[in-house]
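User: Here's a protein and a ligand (iron/sulfur cluster). What would the complex look like?
Assistant: Let me lay out the input and then the predicted complex.
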Amino acid sequence: MKTFNVPVIYRSPLISAIKNQRKQQDRMKKDFSPTLLDFGPLKILLARHFGFCYGVENAIEIAFRTVEENPGKRIFLLSEMIHNAHVNNDLLDRGVQFIMDTAGKQLIPWEDLQEDDIVIIPAFGTTLEIETRLHSLGIEPLKYNTTCPFVERVWNKAEQIGKKSYTVIVHGKPGHEETRATFSHSRSNTPTVVVKDMAEAEKLAAYINGTTPAESFYTVFKDQYSPGFDVTTDLQRVGVVNQTTMLATETQAIADYIRQVITAHYQLTEATVGERFADTRDTLCYATNDNQSAVTGMLLEPADLAIVVGGYNSSNTSHLVELCEEKLPTYFISAPEHIHSAGEIDHYDFHHKQVIHSDTFLPEKERVTVLLTSGASCPDALVEGVIRRLLSFYGLEHKADEMATAD
Ligand code: SF4
């Protein structure tokens, strides 16, 4: 896979050494067991896959290069480039300005933009409406485009099945930048509806098989369907795509469920189901799959707690937290500094969207085992920072240097 020129501040010699070693031992990526870092009283089990994905490194390379190559020019990002405060703040420090916040609220009026301004499209992509708006301002929207190719692959699949008259069901968070972009691209080709989880998929299924009266659809799915959507005719042939960072297993479960509902309702067979249900399996993002499978592999090991590092508004990170929470106490932090001592930590409760303080962090026992991973937009340097912080509570910080320089 292509390698990118990412600022060295985001890299970690320690993590790179571990990742390279694992890569050499398992080139086909078949082994999802964690890496054991045994420091005696502290055992850290590091997920097999974590950290920057292809799309994030691609976006960082383009954004930093654009800043470097255009001194004196005004540079804007449509919104946060990725969901990581460290990276976004580094760009803000270099003079980049955000036009919108992640929820789509305008921070800089469109009228303030000028023809010779540079506008970077973030890794999530953007809507066709915003592309048109930039055109009208004399700005070429795709000149500085960091949209991840794996997101574009979803758009292409939606277009492909849309052209074959399938309605597109997008499994995603309706307010997320990527889902808004995918919804916009898809609805330009075909009727489209967004479902955020299995519960909404079940509600949608009740319109497919007619067990819920059609009229209520427009209230239940308010703001989640394309203009002109006709629930009585537009749910007869469908395909499911996703916001790439959703739980891959949930997307698969939703697709399987809708397929089954369609099969039963239209009395189809394995041979004929394709007439009404499009196969979209090849749109799942490799990084989301790898990171989530690595957490599943890591959770097979006995441990005392899990730490997940990443931006608090990062969808892919929150799904890793969700998986860990099912098994053991889990601490979602965005930086090593949030670990104050062996006992005290400030961590994020993404269910209630608040930072909470805990004073029972590391258990007081002879050997403590910690599971550690991070989201796809989290620099490895932060994960190394967490390892060093944990080691410092045992007077073992030097072990990290020894490990980074070992052959
Ligand atoms: S998580 Fe996947 S789709 Fe999203 S930016 Fe990374 S590689 Fe691209």
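Summary: The chain has a mean pLDDT of 96.
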